[in-house]
Amino acid sequence: MTWHRMDAELDTGAILAQTTVPIEDDETTIEQMGPKMIQASLGLLPKVFERLEAGDPGDPQATEGVSWAGEFEEDYASVDWSQPAREIHNQVRAWHLTFGLGNVPGPIAELDGERVKLLRTSLTDPGNGARPVDCGDGRLWIVESEPAE
Prior knowledge:
The chain is α+β, with helices and mostly antiparallel strands and 149 residues long. Helix content is 24%, strand content 23%.
């Protein structure tokens, strides 16, 4: 989580305060991750206000080795079952956090000859009829999916 000064470019302003928030394997939605992200962000505000009041310009962001990721493209839209289960799980979580606002639908997988959009997966069997799928290094469970358009 980062508070930074605004400037002319997107997400390039000087940093006023920053912290990390662990995201657990079973956290797949903003409803699960959001509360602790908000709590961490709000916990930084006293430091942010102190620096602003002191006229502190903030710490410059690194420019070496950074890039703007942009929206997900076709190359990240298809699920490749030969990949490790964690990679696919993270791909599904990342797409979920785009809130369907990208130009490309994803993640799309083929299951039993049908194209489906994966909405939620798990690295462990959550029960409740979740569907196990063999991946490159083990199993992944599909918790929620819908037909792909």
